[in-house]
Amino acid sequence: MQENRKLQPHERFLERLHLEKEKFMQKNRKLRQIVLAVSVSSALVFPALAYGQSWTYPPVELRLAREGLDSARLALDAREYERARRLAEQAAADARLAEARAETESMRRIAQDLRLSSEAMRATAARASLASLPPPVPRELRLAREELADARLALAAYEYERALRLAEQASADARLAEARAVSESSRLAARDLRLSIEVLRAEAARLAAYY
Fold first, then answer.
1. What is the distance between the alpha carbons of residues 120 and 143, in angstroms, rounded to a whole number?
2. Cα 31 off chain centre by
3. Residue ranges of E strands in the chain
4. String of DSSP letters for 137-168
5. Sign of dihedral through CA atoms 44, 50, 55, 61?
6. DSSP helix/strand/coil, 136
7. Is the pTM of this model over 0.70?
8. What are 31-79's pLDDT values in tens digits?
9. Most buried of 52, 72, 161, 195, CB within 10 angstroms?
10. What domains can be seen in the chain, in order of their start residue?
């Protein structure tokens, strides 16, 4: 058997260097494995983290509901109330569908919150739409306008008696519209119409008496 000879200093240095190299390579391999594992895990986990740890991608209906609600908010800011109401209504429908198809409790809660927000937006837009509509024209005011138009035609056709009767009826309807007016603008419109009718009635009465 060969006796173990004593290593020379330079040989001990080389052996130590070799051992350090092996340790470094071993650590490097482990580091590469850790980095790879973390990268793969991050790629898988990140979409889940973005949606409340659901571990599933959000359904397409949820994305559509979010986009619809955002569009409804923009339409409401632009005072496009009817368009905002329609968008919010569609967003609520998409959110309900997302809520029904949710695979996790967290995803269901997100869809529910989105549905409630969309329904609130729809109600707000509907109220704003109604408030922005012009007030309806009172029936008496509409009748007075029509009768005044007929009286003018009768006067132009030399039918003075008929023009007088139409003007008197138009004047009565205009006075009633003025009395029942629910706003200052409606009252002023009825008053102006009544004054115009009275001018035509006086002219029709004068011509009827003359001819």
1. 40
2. 51
3. none
4. PPHHHHHHHHHHHHHHHHHHTT-HHHHHHHHH
5. negative
6. coil
7. no
8. 555 544 444 333 333 334 444 444 455 678 888 999 999 999 999 899 8
9. 72
10. 60-132 (1.20.58), 139-210 (1.20.58.80)
